[in-house]
Amino acid sequence: xxxxxxxxxxxxxxxxxxxxxxxxxxxxxxxxxxxxxxxxxxxxxxxxxxxxxxxxxxxxxxxxxxxxxxxxxxxxxxxxxxxxxxxxxxxxxxxxxxxxxxxxxxxxxxxxxxxxxxxxxxxxxxxxxxxxxxxxxxxxxxxxxxxxxxxxxxxxxxxxxxxxxxxxxxxxxxxxxxxxxxxxxxxxxxxxxxxxxxxxxxxxxxxxxxxxxxxxxxxxxxxxxxxxxxxxxxxxxxxxxxxxxxxxxxxxxxxxxxxxxxxxxxxxxxxxxxxxxxxxxxxxxxxxxxxxxxxxxxxxxxxxxxxxxxxxxxxxxxxxxxxxxxxxxxxxxxxxxxxxxxxxxxxxxxxxxxxxxxxxxxxxxxxxxxxxxxxxxxxxxxxxxxxxxxxxxxxxxxxxxxxxxxxxxxxxxxxxxxxxxxxxxxxxxxxxxxxxxxxxxxxxxxxxxxxxxxxxxxxxxxxxxxxxxxxxxxxxxxxxxxxxxxxxxxxxxxxxxxxxxxxxxxxxxxxxxxx
Length: 515
Ligand code: SF4
Ligand code: SF4
Prior knowledge:
CATH superfamily of the largest domain: NADH-ubiquinone oxidoreductase 51kDa subunit
Distance between the termini: 140 Å
Number of strands: 17
Structural class: alpha/beta
Bound molecules: iron/sulfur cluster
CATH topology of the largest domain: Rossmann fold
CATH architecture of the largest domain: 3-Layer(aba) Sandwich
Radius of gyration: 35 Å
Shape: elongated
Number of domains: 2
Strand content: 15-25%
Number of helices: 14
């Protein structure tokens, strides 16, 4: 077992609230009659459908293909018929709809033929990444970034350490904890494949010390693979937000990711343990990513737990399966109480980034009307990025976006520590999200107006060029005309002169004398 080498400023010791959902093993959610599959379940461009309405599809069959580099494929989570490709509400704070493929399942759950890679060490790192991309794998910690990109450090970077994120620091969420407990060998399969793709031996599986069962399971699994001599479990202190990328790297290695930099800049690649498990299933079992473990928990959930759920399963089916006290249309949270977001309706599908559905939370967020800021400084003390939330608040409130930039608004990881400790119960993170959105909108507007200005200038230049060319043509035409006229006049004069000369040189005749 290795020891943490660093720490980060601020952070919070929060009540875990994890017992409620870890009393039973992971259960399988029953197959839904209808699966709703958004084409965009990842960061990047939405996948493009390759099926049409009426097509019969098999479980695991590719139904949408990646669109561009930052994109992944999408697969049918069960067999059935494609009944529609249309906009449907998606689980997003905006409440917006987006294009989805809808499958009516046939109850057969019939797999497509699966292509198993018996010995991945015979594959090139490029081939491994391609399989992972084709399997539709994205970061399952909640971000949804295509995993094959993070497994490609490029020729200019050397990877020193692979870190597996098993911190799961937000209260209530336990899907990674249960995965570590029950599927530790599968996680190790994925880790070995990731090590091969990255050509790295050093690997640290970081788990918070409030998960003793997960730590034991992982250590036991690791002991059965004696060839993994440079892979170790690291038990790290339970503190929120240790699971955030830069904070975890600081705890594990003692190194700081440079401002505006990436972990690869200091030789580190970090993946979630759920992602490693998915990688193992894709390569060793030929299974694309069609399901995930979802924690369903909260004070209003009767049978909380973790459920292996096919993507596209309507959330209301999960909620009724677990029996909740929730009234229809009552909002609930997707994600944790600190970084999750409220969803109004439950006729929304489970997607690749849905780690937790939370119904009923102990008082973790502000419910009362905020009071004025008393400049106590508690928010700054809690900030894990060493920002000055109080200053950010003033400038966000005043919509002074330039000033928010000066105070490094975009370094804010929206962890919510500042809001949580604020005695005036000011929803600081909401102000920061607003300021970020405004800044990005302004930036987009600026880009649009820059593009319009450039278009206008180009048009003016083109018009001026055309005017000059036209004038030059006219000038040449006139000159040519004048030259023609002059030539003609000259020729006429020459002819006339020749005529005159001819007349004067001819001898006088009798007729002339008679005249
Ligand atoms: S914690 Fe709240 S009251 Fe205290 S300085 Fe920060 S914003 Fe103001
Ligand atoms: S939400 Fe942002 S400002 Fe507030 S504590 Fe977290 S990182 Fe700091």
